[in-house]
Amino acid sequence: MLNTDIILTGTIKNPRVAKTKTGEKMAFVSLESEDGEIIDTVFFPRVWKEYEVKIKEGKFVTLCGKFSNNIQNQKNDKNRFAVSSVLPRVKKTEEALKTNWDLIKNPEKYEKPMCFKIHRGTKEIGGTCVEIWTDNARVIVDMGTPLVNADGTPFDEKIMENLSREDLIKRQILPDIPDLYRESMNTALFISHAHKDHYGLMEHIHPSCPVYMGNAADHLIKLTNNFLGKEAPKNKIKHFKHYTPFKIGDIEITPFLMDHSAFDAYALLIKANGKSILYSGDFRNHGKKYRIFDFFCNNIQKGVDYLLLEGSTMDKAIDKFPTEKDLEEKFIDTFKKTKGIRLVFVSGQNIDRLVTIYNACVEAKKIFLVDFYTANVMKTINNKASSSIPFPSRENFMEIQVYFPHYLTKIIEDRGKYNEFIKPFEYHKKNIDKLDDIADKVVMIVRPHVIYDLEKGLQNYKDGCFIFSMWNGYKKDIKNKKLLDFISKKGMPIIDHLHTSGHADLHCLKLMVEAVKPKHIVPIHTFKPKKYKEHFSEYHVLDVTYKETIKM
Fold first, then answer.
1. CA angle, 135 as apex, 134 and 140 as ends, to 5°?
2. CATH topology of domain 6-109
3. Which range among 32-41, 358-367, 441-450 shows the weakest confidence by mean pLDDT?
């Protein structure tokens, strides 16, 4: 139904005054056109109080108003017209008057659509990209590096190095959205969170295109680019805020902060021309920010037209995943029972997991030994977003010490970045050339590039343990596999069950659907789109194909 102001002229017929539940006066009035067409209008209390004296049987009037879906007891949806004001007599052409009355009889002819198209994500995880547009504005939500090729094999980023933008578009690596690659009014890119499969391709867009994301996400992406030696994008980065709506042209966007393994992750409610899309982003409710999901459920608009719902874990038969608090207890137990060194392989940007491990170290009275990249991530989040996040500090979090991995240190020194990324942690430096001397006291964060350091500084592996606290799919990565093979050959026990997903379990997915009550559910960020109909049989699940335009 249209939700735009229009002007109608006609003769007042049968005005009926009624009272609201609070005793205020309102009125239902029929308006007859010169051609004998009848429409029922409603004057809500504020409007009726102001214009009551102008509404008389048989009087010719000019009314301004709009269709409303909130007027009750009307038999015909097309006749719901809420008056906002009574105007002085206006001069309008006969053609214009007929157009307005035709609009009432056939509003679908005049509705301005909002459209969307999924450029990647309908049948895969990673590389998500959604285009949403109206006649005068366009927003693109996420522009990530693919994790897999169309045939499901791992995507190799190296193939992009010598390809032009045109070649990348032809190979369906970059989305075919011309306005992204040229100067264009009212076009903007939105990044839901700082995982590379959601932002990794944004370096290819035109410098004039603004990019919107959370404040902490922006700083995490800049930090990652700095460590990788990549130039920062020249685009103007703008920070949105939780539950604060704003507009790009006629498209309104409201970000909702969500619980996810990536810090500062958002769902986005997008509205235009009386239509609405909710992009769920990546989310869950079993992390340390679970209460923010409750806020979302209590405040999200009900009856959204399309819910683009992530289904990363749709292939699992688990209704509920362990919480980060559950993991904390298991880490404490493991740290206390292990006699030797405890090596933990975890993402340096999984803030929830790092906090979980830190808390376990405090309880088990162990040193939390992190590399300087992880230390920089923790410091960035503490300084830019949340002062409760632990990081190496002279005042607080004294359990954290920092080591300087050989290869990573050399790379940073060669780039001339020592003073920026390493020097701030010299006070907290822990030498690792004799790890056996401190093994019983240490929990050490490791990654593939530390094999050299482990080979040089650690002899006793069998008394310790190696904890793989990540998605098991990452074991297939060549570098990760090399580290796992190294640990296995050393005879160190490998523990791979101290992990919980960064994505929603089935129970959480159902909570979102129940809160939103969408008219349509669209699978996204999933390998199992057909599972949606099985789990959400009471809703219309729309299986959108690659690059299919959905006109709302």
1. 40
2. OB fold (Dihydrolipoamide Acetyltransferase, E2P) (2.40.50)
3. 32-41
